[in-house]
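Quick one:
INPUT:
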């Protein structure tokens, strides 16, 4: 294996960005970032000049926020779900980029709460994103405090601006009939499976006959949910039995699109929304 030409002690972190793969170089693990490049081992003379400048502050520099984020992303504190992991990574890297030049000790200062609120205010016109930015940042900071990387933090219990009341969102039999009269067969199946099981799209699209089991003579689905990792047991209603029986024997999952390809969670959700909106005047569902 060829030896690295990087100066001894340089810490390199690879990150996938919208522009492609990039490498971030830190003067040492936990030290300041001094270079970003698309190659693993830069040959630009300015790279060594930047490194020399960075190590001058070795004795006064602190554990930096981007390194704290990298350590969090490599830790067991990351959520288990694949979709949630992707969302956390996206927002964690945004957080790291915003505070790239700040030591982790920044978060031990009471004024850091204002810094964090100012950052997430960039998304104030999108309440869900505004709140999610804060959720991920606080998760990282709580982890850092628990791991002894920072001594304290002042960013917990941030105010939230997103709220939704789904208590009155109900699909009546008339709503479902109007929907199914207008939607194509593959979307009807999404609706039926969603209404009869109450599962989220991420769980619906994974359902197969393999999830079926019999208990005390009753057929049911046994599902480990994606969001919380809990096992749910769902009785097979007559509507579900019909849907299962109508599924071709060579079709692995119960839900496919109009091209007979497995659905993604977002596709299943958008299909319902699209046809709901088309017949909005016939539906009494409140959103």
């Amino acid at each position: 294996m060829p030896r690295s030409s990087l100066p001894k002690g340089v810490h390199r972190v690879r990150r996938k960005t919208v522009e492609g793969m990039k490498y971030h170089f830190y003067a040492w693990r936990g030290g300041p970032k001094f270079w970003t490049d698309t190659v693993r081992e830069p040959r630009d003379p300015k790279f060594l000049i930047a490194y020399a400048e960075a190590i001058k502050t070795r004795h006064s520099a602190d554990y930096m926020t981007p390194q704290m984020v990298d350590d969090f992303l490599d830790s067991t504190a990351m959520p288990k779900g694949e979709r949630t992991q992707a969302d956390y990574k996206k927002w964690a890297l945004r957080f790291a980029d915003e505070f790239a030049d700040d030591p982790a000790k920044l978060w031990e200062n009471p004024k850091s709460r204002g810094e964090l609120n100012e950052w997430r205010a960039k998304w104030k016109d999108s309440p869900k994103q505004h709140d999610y930015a804060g959720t991920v940042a606080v998760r990282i900071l709580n982890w850092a405090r628990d791991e002894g990387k920072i001594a304290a933090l002042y960013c917990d219990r941030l105010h939230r601006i997103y709220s939704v009341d789904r208590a009155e969102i109900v699909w009546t039999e008339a709503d479902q009939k109007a929907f199914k009269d207008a939607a194509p067969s593959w979307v009807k199946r999404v609706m039926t499976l969603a209404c009869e099981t109450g599962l989220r799209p991420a769980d619906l699209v994974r359902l197969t006959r393999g999830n079926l089991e019999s208990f005390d003579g009753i057929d049911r689905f046994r599902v480990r949910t994606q969001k919380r990792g809990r096992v749910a047991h769902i009785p097979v209603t007559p509507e579900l039995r019909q849907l299962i029986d109508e599924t071709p024997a060579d079709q692995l999952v119960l839900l496919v699109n109009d091209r007979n390809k497995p659905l993604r969670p977002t596709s299943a959700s958008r299909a319902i929304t699209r046809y709901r909106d088309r017949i909005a005047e016939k539906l009494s569902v409140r959103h």
